[in-house]
């Protein structure tokens, strides 16, 4: 019933590492798996990533949602879960990796 882990959010990815020459592994540590990947001629791979910004962790928010869950006997989940789901801004970035799996172009 209690989904406090969802309420805590997720830190914004460090986009400062996304630059030419950085390995795909390092990028995916920050952005996660690509939502789409297309193999191109010459061994290059074009990947599309989606990430959210503005969903930073908040212990205070998690406690407030937990208290509302208790006070409403769980009914707060009906309103609280969608509210948290709309927080943050969803963004996309496209990255082309060379045959060596390092960023070739952004």
Please tell me about this protein's structure.
The chain is of the alpha+beta class and 106 residues long. It has one domain: 2-Layer Sandwich (Beta-lactamase Inhibitory Protein, Chain:B, domain 1), CATH 3.30.1450. Strand 3 and strand 4 form a beta hairpin. The N terminus is likely disordered.
Helix/strand order, N-terminal first? HHEEHHEE
Question: What is the correct CATH architecture?
Answer: 2-Layer Sandwich
Identify the CATH class.
Alpha Beta
Number of strands: 4
User: What is the total domain count?
Assistant: 1
Radius of gyration: 18 Å
* Major β-sheet strand ordering: 1-2-3-4
Low-pLDDT stretches are 1-7
Report the CATH topology name: Beta-lactamase Inhibitory Protein, Chain:B, domain 1
Shape: elongated
N-to-C span: 42 Å
Portion in helices: 25-40%
Mean pLDDT, to the nearest integer, reads 81
In short:
With 106 residues, the protein is α+β, with helices and mostly antiparallel strands. It has helices spanning 4-7, 24-31, 59-71, 76-85; strands at residues 36-39, 45-53, 89-97, 103-105. It contains four helices and four strands; from the N terminus they run H-H-E-E-H-H-E-E.
